Amino acid sequence: MRMTAVTCVKNEGPFLVEWIAFNRVIGITDFLFYSNDCSDGTDRLLDRLAELGLVMHLPNPARGRNYQMEALRHARQQPIAREADWVWIADVDEFLNIRAGTGTIAELIEACGQPKAVSFHFQFFSNCGVETFEDAPVIGQFTRSHNPDLWCDRFAIETKTLIHKDFPVHFYGAHRPYLRPTLPERKRPKWTDGSGRPVPEDFLLAPAKKPIRDFDARGARDLATLNHYALRSLDSYLVKNDRGDVNRDNRDFDDTYWRERNDDGFEDRSIRRYLPRLKAEIARLKSDPEVARLHDEAVALHRATRDRLLSDPAYVALRDRLRTLPRRPPSELDLIDLIA
After folding, report:
1. pTM given for the model
2. Among residues 132, 250, 255, 336, which one has the fewest Cβ atoms lying within 10 Å of its Cβ?
3. Which spans in the chain are helix H?
């Protein structure tokens, strides 16, 4: 079974090997990477992995600033995605935490009843008070998140979707595919959540012009959840802030972005069961001396960017402010005040 992961990257060099290794462990066989404007060696590392036949690496085809959507349109035409049995569209800070069987995508698909798509809700993992960037698996460092049923003040949480080749795709969205608008009811695909339940009809039928990317997360994580490490260490968050967002040029990450994702009220260490297999796969990838060298170079450049930023008083002030912020989202505190 061929399973292709499609992702866009900008300055994710220190985290690439872990993400590729993790996805190989859960069953991904092929990778299609689009990169743009990298200054930390991400592109050089991907080029070496491509030379080894482990990934396909292309420059992002975007002519405007909507990097991800333009890349996804391009990806649909590539044999690596078009000929795959399943396509998984995700980012390098997102890890599919599968609870079915030994934790593989094949076991998950079976447990969900062989659907044509499965949508998994984000579970945002907090910074956990980790300040210093360490070259160690992200999934082992960050173990606290919001209540999986409730993010900020809402039960509806955004998703990412695993898509079968027989799904009647109108086009790929970053979070979910959209059905062909003329598709008759009898041909609607079986589409489940992370517990194997049918997704809500309004989500299923949402038109591309009025996209719906979320639905109620309560009870939707029995078989899998999507661990999203949007913050990582404070060092790495500062570097991410400097980099901007892969989707849009020059996007700043303000206090709200941090606070909404730094809720650490719930402990979840379940993904750590992958660590022995993950570390073995990382070692296999790094057994190529050039991969190991380029990874180490990306780590050094990540730290050098951190050091450069902290020579700027504005970034020192940002770091100090983030350290002191409440570990509850603003909307949740507003709700508590309203109830009180």
Report:
1. 0.95
2. 250
3. 13-26, 42-51, 67-75, 79-82, 105-111, 138-141, 201-204, 234-243, 255-261, 275-286, 289-309, 313-324, 330-339
